[in-house]
Automatic annotation (TrEMBL):
Lineage summary: Eukaryota, Metazoa, Chordata, Craniata, Vertebrata
GO BP field: double-strand break repair; mitotic intra-S DNA damage checkpoint signaling; replication fork processing; resolution of meiotic recombination intermediates
Cleavable signal peptide: none
Keywords on record: DNA damage, DNA recombination, DNA repair, Nucleus
Protein name from the UniProt record: Essential meiotic structure-specific endonuclease subunit 2
UniProt-annotated location(s): Nucleus
Annotated gene: EME2
Record carries keyword Phosphoprotein: no
ERCC4 domain segment(s): 18-241
Gene3D superfamilies: 3.40.50.10130, Crossover junction endonuclease EME1, DNA-binding domain
Superkingdom as given in the UniProt entry: Eukaryota
Amino acid sequence: MLKDVGSDTLMEALESMELRYSIEPQSVSCSITWRREAPSKCERESITGLNTVEEDQIVMLAMPNEFLQLVNSMKQDKSLHASTTHLPEQLPGKTATLVVLGLDVYQCDQKNYTDQAEDGEHQLFIYLLVASVWSQALVALQLQKNMGVLFMETWQELGEYITLLTKSVAKRPFKKQCENMAFSFCVEGSWASGIRVEKDGAGLHQVWKRQIQQFNRVSPLMAAAITAKYPSPQLLLQAYRECSMEQEKSNLLADLMVKSSGNDKERRIGPELSRKIYTYMISSNPELILDLNG
């Protein structure tokens, strides 16, 4: 791969992104693979060091003549036996992509020599360059080997593709962790879906009820009792304004009765929650801590 003059462009792209890379013999020639350092764990799941883990991604590079040789062998043998070292017979556990570099330029160059009819190999390549011919090979590669094929014209395109793919591979563990992470503060069910408020105001009462439920240790029954007495924030504020004493405002909700779930027993809202809601409704300090007891 590095024998081509244009490969310097690929190296420059990797260096510009400050990516760590090494040039090593590969089991699949002219290929690019990825490795990461992952923590190694003992039986007790404690981190003891770092292990090098090879990713499942592999990109194989083929020049136009090599790609056309592959297409020709597939047409003749009706199989995926490798005619070049770029396509091994088995890629267990690998997500493979074959990049064909410079096919359009190669096609133009070949058509400039159509007068060389005596050149049998040249005439074969002209035939194979017909899109309908090699497109059948692409379908076979995708269906039988789960291998994608990309056509690029310059090393610069290849460099940009490799850098983007490297970023994607690097972010995989983080994305996987985010997908599997359970957030304790995200309530399951309809709570997380939000409330739809219609133009006529339908749904506002539910929004007000959910707002009360955001207080620590406030059950749906407690929120329902408060919002039944004061169906909107404006009505609650009006009730506070009608109180003459500060203590009266703070304890306005304290004596509201709440039925316990599963039985007919009732209990009071209590002065602590009443104080929190009052402070929340009248305070203009966004940094104020309402729940002093956690």
